[in-house]
Amino acid sequence: MKLVAMRTMLKNLVRAELDELVIPIDPLFSSLGKKARELLLTLTTSGDMEGLLSKYPALREKMEAIERLVNTKIPEESALIISILVKLMIEIDERIKEIDRALRQIVIRNKKLLRSVELLMTIPGVGFIAAVTIIAEIGDISRFPSPKSLAMYAGLCPRIFQSGGRIYHGPLPWRCNKRLRWIMYQVAIALLRTRSQLKRFYERIKRRRGHKVAVIALARKIIVAIWCMLTRGEEWREGIKSPRRVPRVSVEKETVLRAINLLRSLGYIVVKGGEGNVF
Questions:
Q1: Across-strand partners of 166?
Q2: CB within 8 A of 23, min separation 6: which ones?
Q3: Are 218 and 225 in contact (CB under 8 A)?
Q4: SS3 state of residue 243
Q5: What pTM value is reported for the model?
Q6: Which of 132, 131, 148, 84 is nearest to 236 (CA)?
Q7: What mean pLDDT is predicted for residues 101-106?
Q8: Long-range CB contacts (< 8 A, 24+ apart) of 88-96?
């Protein structure tokens, strides 16, 4: 996933350069995808604009915005920087495709791994690379006894502090699998672009705590579902639930009852004292 991070960094550098030159790219493209990159290369290297429009006829519908872009004067040094950055992005895309093809061959040869990848790809917003990355970072799911342990391993459970009888939620832990946390954050962002009902969960948290906290909460919810899916061999369902957790109070009561029965079996007389105490 380092190549993806490098590509994102290059996109940000191109954006920064365009913003500095006040070049209006946003009316044309929401992201620096394939068409945007080819258009930027054409502009910065004096390429064939008519050929590009013939290759992508849909761009003719945005001729007014393209003409403003063409009429924008780009300094020679800035044009060189932008063209180099865009070419690097294209090169990284090619290397990512090579890795993608190699990974697919590895996954196809391993039936158990293939099944796990297929399960995770049923999650809205999860593609092949994201599914393989998640499985690679988790490893054997049986080493996590509960969904919470997996969420803690991914660093998606905030630290908790208690003072004066009050509980405070602190920042996310820094000792965790940062690659797993990063990919889960990206999965949560991708899910928000789908029609998943979990977007309502995100909106509810966002109104109270803000965007970033809401995305982390959504990522935590997804990774809990991933634990259930890999443990049970089930596909994604919006209402998938983790195993029912026994309340701590009931466990304590059960322990007290066992102790009482043990004392009585040894011949002791056990009576209930004040304030719920047993003697």
A1: 163
A2: 69, 72, 74
A3: no
A4: coil
A5: 0.65
A6: 131
A7: 90
A8: 88/10, 89/7, 89/10, 89/11, 89/14, 89/32, 89/37, 90/37, 92/3, 92/6, 92/7, 92/10, 93/7, 95/3, 96/3, 96/4, 96/7, 96/129
Q: Say what the pLDDT of residue 31 is.
A: 76
> What are the boundaries of each domain within the chain?
2-109, 111-232, 247-279
In this prediction, residue 135 has a pLDDT band, given cuts at 50, 70 and 90, of very high
**Tokens in use for 169?**
């939620």
What DSSP designation does 160 have? E
pLDDT in tens, 249-265: 454 566 777 777 777 77
CA pair distance 242, 227, nearest whole angstrom: 8
Cα–Cα distance between 191 and 214 in angstroms, integer? Answer: 13
Judged on CB neighbours under 10 Å (0-12, 13-18, 19+), 120 is buried
**Tens digit of pLDDT for each residue in 153-200?**
999 887 666 666 666 566 777 788 999 999 999 999 999 988 888 999
Helix (H) or strand (E) run with residue 168 in it: strand 166-169
